[in-house]
């Protein structure tokens, strides 16, 4: 994790427009840290539910709260946790590979994800014990 580009971070995307006509924000592969292979969105999540509870072996993501508020708590393989609050549709959270995440939604939140890989179930780490053992194996 010595490369700053491989650290989670908020990325602000430009927005065009104003309050009279609305806004437009664009994400193009040429301006992203990876090439987008999949796009999905999650919505109608109760604010009492905590989602996530997984990491990815190779997948990278940029997550947006296009509506509402979303709280992400990320943990690296060394146990360091950082919490991010998404509440602006033009600000995305870059999540590199090997970060465990938990996600809390406001009642009206819509999560939009740009992902570097198509869906592959074997790419997920869904067992926290296995994730926490990655440090011992020297995985990066």
TrEMBL record:
Coiled coil: none annotated. InterPro entries: QdtA_cupin_dom, RmlC-like_jellyroll, RmlC_Cupin_sf. Residues 8-135 form the Sugar 3,4-ketoisomerase QdtA cupin domain. It holds the Pfam family FdtA. It comes from the Bacteria. This is dTDP-4-dehydrorhamnose 3,5-epimerase-like enzyme.
